[in-house]
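Intended use. Records like the one below are meant for learning the mapping from a protein sequence to its folded structure. Do not use them to infer anything beyond what is encoded.
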Amino acid sequence: MEILFKKHDRLLEVTPTKIIRQWARSINWEARMMAIRGPKGVGKSTMMLQYIKLHYQPLDRQVLYASCDDNYFNTHTLLDLAEQFYLIGGKHLFLDEVHKYTNWSREVKEIYDFYPTMRVVLSGSSLLSLTEGDADLSRRCVNHDIQGLSFREFLHFYKGIEIPVFPLEQLLKNPAPLMQEMNKEGRPVALFHEYLKYGYYPYYLNNETDYYTTIQQVVNHIIDNELPRICRVDLGNTRKLKSLLTILCSNVPFQVDIAKLATLSGLKRDTVVAYLGYLDKARLIHLYYSDLKSVKRMQKPDKIYMDNTNLLYAWATAPIHIGTARETFVANQLSACHTVEYRKTNGDFLVDNRYVLEVGGENKDFTQIADIPDSYILSDNLETAIGKKLPIWAVGFGY
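Structure written out for the chain above:
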């Protein structure tokens, strides 16, 4: 176990703590067991290491961070580690990439049951299931789902612009304070269009080619490795699954025709429906329905978006229409903290079963949502609000 502590110490030395994400501040780190789920590359490991660095002294052996894809676990089990850690007084165990460990849920359940004084933090893929097999952790484990950087966080990470969270309800009632604050710091429209292409994932280093290559590698890893292992996707279908993703990317926001998707991808209809669900859970796409209350298993969605705009630009094989990027941005940013439904008519989105939002360019008017209560336009190329017509970038301050 000493080798794990050496790696733990080295990682903490190089972990920056200058910027702490909003997600980290909302997590209950004191829970007996909790899981941080999210797509690869959104900063789960950094979040865990930052918490340790800020709350424990260097060389404190009451806490241990270990990645479950470490070679240590070729000859040791999680239960072995927990026992040894407990015997030396260990109290807080952080297990990263837990989905890469075979039968992780059974052993984690035993750790929870037999070491009641030990707190355990897990991290893993968005596909991580707390009800896997016969080791149901749903009643034991607090789950936290995180996603990439919001527009607000992008400004903080990459531009040094620090503005507090501005919730949607507050924005819709009184947008002026945010407009004033943002316009003092820079030109929001230009920064917004930069964010659409770069900066959703916290590893952009001002190199477009390398950034998009990394995103493509993440997508390939999810489809080639995580989906077959976690969702039991047939390895022979991974190429078709990538083809399906490319089709969706080229047509986003996709008006769903399952039969057409099946023909274009070479997959059976039921397989397409199932795979869409997996891609949604993996945070590669986002499925939207016009009535969440009536959604049934295996029902086709009403509209499909790529999960975020950076993924859209990185995976696309054709030029991206700005209208597609705008809608993808709004769907991504609002779905982090709100319930979002697709509107078939009179608006683009229904948020929290209350607010109707229409997304468009600077000339978008209220024709489609006239006389609808709590309806607003999110418009591009605006720096300030004009009545109920708000700058689209403003919804990027929700987290």
